Amino acid sequence: MGEISTEEAIRVAKERGLDLLEVSPDSVPPVCRIVDIGKWKYEQAKKERVQRAHQKQVETKGVRISIRASLHDLGIRARQSEKFLNQGDKVRIEMILRGRERANEAFARERFGEFTSLLAVPYKIEQDIKREPKGLSMIIAKGRSNNSQNNDHEQAKN
After folding, report:
1. Distance between CA atoms of 116 and 119, rounded to whole angstroms?
2. What is the DSSP string of 39-81?
3. Cβ(119)–Cβ(153) under 8 Å?
4. What is the spatial distance between Cα 89 and Cα 59, in angstroms, rounded to a whole number?
């Protein structure tokens, strides 16, 4: 319609039985549209629903490993973690420490290193090894990493 005064725009909208919607109030002059506000709100909500439906919600899956677990057991958990990473989920690796195991945190951290070296999927560390009341945990996600162990593993595959 071009540039018209606010009073003129309101009059035209009322004649058509529609509403005046301010699209860009910060521009000079302000930009407005003449629309049916109920229909416009419905269309906006519909667009938002469709957009939300096409979005993948990233979940955090959990894997528990033990400080006493054998290398084979760690391998099984590593394959399970790879499956989660390939699905696009984050993986929270937990190590529950009981009794005197809590005193040997350095060994537990080494076990985390052994576990992550078994992962064939490139990963990045979202949250480094963190002390928690029941033990240790870390969170990893699929992606390129700065982790030298992971890069060495990738080069060995090629």
Report:
1. 5
2. HHHHHHHHHHHHHHHTSPPPPEEEEEE-TT--HHHHHHHHHHH
3. yes
4. 5
- CATH number for the domain running over 60-157: 3.30.110.10
Note the CATH number of domain 6-53: 3.10.20.80
Tokens 């469709």 belong to: 50
Structure tokens at 158: 């090629």
What's the CA angle centered on 18, arms 14 and 21, to 5 degrees? 105
What is the pLDDT at residue 28? 85
The ranges assigned to domains in the chain are 6-53, 60-157
Radius of gyration (Cα) for the chain, nearest Å? 28
Q: How far apart are the first and last CA of the chain?
A: 63
pLDDT means per 10 residues, the chain with 158 residues, are 86 91 87 91 92 82 91 93 91 92 89 91 92 92 65 46
